[in-house]
Amino acid sequence: MHSRTVFFVSDGTGITAETFGNAILAQFEMKPRHVRLPFIDTVDKAHQAVRQINHTGEVEGKKPVVFTTLVNMEVLKVIQEGCQGMLLDMFGTFVHPLEEELGIKSHHRVGRFSDVSRSKEYTDRIEAINFSLAHDDGQSNRDLAGADVILVGVSRSGKTPTSLYLAMQCGLKAANYPLIPEDFERRQLPPALVPFRSKIFGLTISPDRLAEIRAERRPNSRYASLENCRMEVSEAEAMMRRAGIRWLSTTTKSIEEIATTILQEIRPERLVY
């Protein structure tokens, strides 16, 4: 059972409120119920949000925690005056002090995605996502020269989610390429990757964890056997050492940690967030 309900109220998508709120909540040993209330951009919607928040508090007998990123002052006023939860106004906490310090008024615009969708950065990010999907799991060797990074590793070591995260969050064209038995027999990188060695980053994983992951997909198979996983991981790591490729273990790391380490290592010239 959840210990508390947390609302994320925004006049946009609510992604900023939820990301920031989750970063703060991660400091506490609790599993709250999350409710995102996006596009609260009118007074009427604000009143509806207040009713939902207050009703939740009455039912649960505990004050909901409410993170907001509202810039419309009329809408925010409804939430501030009517909400019976613990209200954390993130824009009020950070934007107003910055206005005073910088001597500049913020735009106070509701959302920014209509602007973003017309920007070059947004177009580049969409292209990066398409590139990463087209080059997932070694599907295509075409245009690897256009990749910002090429992830290699054994099957199920975290290459696909990491490459998609790099594309979606950072706008990087990330290809990923699985190391297969034929590569281990040759004891060399796949020939298609050799010209792009400087862009390669390796992912490895503990054999025990790899066997668990593979067993969920193909139980009782040689592919998922611990013996085979030990062999593949050992051969892959030896290959990366011989090739002088930078690599890390994904066993205990989140996608965010993996991606951050890769960014620090490859230091791409362009980063889009």
Polypeptide structure, described:
The protein contains eleven helices and eight strands. The protein has helices spanning 15-25, 43-60, 73-82, 90-102, 113-116, 120-134, 159-170, 181-186, 207-217, 226-243, 255-266; strands at residues 5-10, 33-37, 65-69, 86-89, 149-154, 174-179, 200-204, 246-249. It has a four-stranded parallel β-sheet, with helices on both faces. The two termini are 35 Å apart. The mean pLDDT is 88.
As a whole number of angstroms, the C-alpha radius of gyration is: 24 Å
Low-confidence regions? none
End-to-end separation in angstroms reads 35 Å
The oligomeric state is: single chain
Q: What coarse outline follows from CA principal-axis ratios?
A: elongated
Write down the secondary-structure element order.
EHEHEHEHHHEHEHEHHEH
Keywords:
273 residues; alpha/beta; four-stranded parallel β-sheet; 11 helices
Task: Provide a concise account of the structure shown.
The chain is of the alpha/beta class.
Give the helix/strand layout.
Blueprint (H helix, E strand, L loop, with lengths): L4 E6 L4 H11 L7 E5 L5 H18 L4 E5 L3 H10 L3 E4 H13 L10 H4 L3 H15 L14 E6 L4 H12 L3 E6 L1 H6 L13 E5 L2 H11 L8 H18 L2 E4 L5 H12 L7
Parallel strand pairs: 1-2, 1-3, 3-4, 5-6, 5-7, 7-8
Helix pairs in contact: 2-3, 6-7, 7-11, 9-10
